[in-house]
Amino acid sequence: MARSPAARSVRKGERPNLAAETLTEQAYRLIEEQIVTLRLKPGDVISEQLLSATFKIGRTPIREALQRLAREGLITVLPRKGILVSDINPRNQLLVLEVRREIERLLSRAGADRATQQQRDQFTEIAQGMDRAAKSDDDIAFMRLDRELNRLLIEAAHNDYAARSMKLLQGLSRRFWYMHYRDAADLPLCARLHANQARAIAQGNEEAAARAADKLMDYVENFTRATVMV
Questions:
Q1: Residue pLDDT, tens place only, 217-229
Q2: Among 96, 111, 169, 201, which one has the highest count of C-beta atoms within 10 angstroms of its own C-beta?
Q3: Which domain CATH number covers 79?
């Protein structure tokens, strides 16, 4: 079976195929990665004009992307003052994880049951990519694969209500991880936990997928608590 362009990009750890995205989706992905990887740091002031010039994307897609980022809590829009990258708070992150744990388990179980064969192939490729990221300790490859796994998990579960809730949490979780992982995390272990989750979903094993999601959330919660203690 031939792999789709998106699946090939996941296997190589590259960025998604831009031709498959709208301009708003491109703008969102590019700005979100800048925020999550702390190139845009908490408290930084950003503007539609500067982002439009930086990414060579029109102001309207940039504005729509910023609206989505504001809904997800990654930026704060202050009327007549500007747009700020939101602060990071470990205790708030623990509240995020309370919700994410339940939704992650639900989506993993549903994905294992409802994923198409093409999606199962993509889950397998993500698992393989996570295994490689674990061996190479490659943080950027891990972050991109994690984002792709989150996207695919939402699509495969076919539950719009859970999807909307999860989309509000993922960027916050990924940014918190990136900010603290060098001090408190075991990236290879976390990558392997993601690989186990993706592989269980690919195999259609609902119980194994739910257990893998719980083990991943156990690790992420312990990591988050460790940052509070630092």
A1: 999 999 998 887 6
A2: 201
A3: 1.10.10.10
Task: List C-alpha distances in Å: 78 to 28, 64, 66, 192.
Answer: 19, 16, 12, 40
Query: Looking at 85, 110, 131, which one is the last position of a domain?
Result: 85
pTM exceeding the 0.85 threshold for the entire prediction? no
Domain end, chosen from 85, 119, 141, is at 85
In a domain, 6, yes or no: no
